[in-house]
Amino acid sequence: MKTFLVSLLSVALCSFANAQxxxxxxxxxxxxxxxxxxxxxxxxxxxxxxFKHIGQLPVEAMGHNVVILxxxxxxxxxxxxxxxxxxxxxxxTDPETAAMIVAHSKLLGxxxxxxxxxxxPAAGEYPFICTFPGHFAIMQGVMTVNAx
Length: 148
Hints:
By secondary structure, the protein is α/β, with parallel strands linked by helices.
C-alpha cells in the first residue's frame, strides 16, 4: 500500500510539473518571418521554445535565431551591436549588451532546429528578435509574461 501511495504521489507531482511548463513552437522561414508575433507565459514558469528554420537557405545566407530581450532594451541599438558578432552567431558578448538577453537560440540555417529552456522572468513585455544582420526590422515579436 505504501508503494502504491508513493507511486501515485510521484505521478501527481510529474503531472503538476508538466502543467507548469509552457511549450512554445516557433518557426522562421526564408521570407524572414516568424510563425508567431507573440506568445504568453506566466512568471516563474518553465518555458521551452522549440525553434525551427523551415526554409531551405543556408545559415550564411539566411540564418535565424530567437533572442528574447529585457523590456527596457532599445531593439535597434541591440541589433546594431549584434551585427558585429558574426563569430558568436550574432549574439553580443560585451557585458552591458549581453546583460539585455533573457534567453536565445542558436543561429540556424534551413532545416535546422534548436530548443531553448529558461524560467520566465517577472511580469512584463519582452521583445524577441532575430539578430542576423538586417532581420530584426521584420523578425520581431513580444513575449508577454503574466503575473502569477
